[in-house]
Design brief:
By secondary structure, the protein is largely without helices or strands. The protein contains two helices and three strands; from the N terminus they run ββαβα. It has a domain of about 55 residues. Helices cover about 15% and strands about 10% of the residues. A three-stranded antiparallel beta sheet has the order 2-1-3. The longest helix is centred in the middle third of the chain and has 8 residues. It comes from Rhizobium altiplani.
Length: about 80
């Protein structure tokens, strides 16, 4: 089950469970749509994977399956992926 992390790892923007701005990779690294488009170029800076829109959990299921409250933030900030 997806953690539904509460914030963007780059800019720390709040991303509630129903946010249409939340983007994730297959490891659930979480970023806002602005950082994905303007800084990351659609690629996760952690794993190099594709970032796609995170699905929203139905509100009726949040009580039984709550979103994560653990905030993850890259201390060094985010930058575009560098070619190897």
């Amino acid at each position: 089950m997806l953690e539904l992390r509460p914030n963007c790892e780059c800019c720390d923007k709040d991303l509630p469970p129903d946010s249409s701005e939340a983007m994730i990779c297959t490891f659930e690294c979480t970023f806002c749509a602005d950082c994905v488009a303007d800084v990351l170029g659609g690629i996760c800076p952690n794993c190099g994977g594709e970032l796609v829109r995170r699905p929203a959990r139905p509100a009726a299921k949040l009580a039984k399956y709550p979103a994560s409250t653990k905030r993850v933030l890259k201390a060094e900030g985010c930058g575009p992926i560098k070619a190897a």
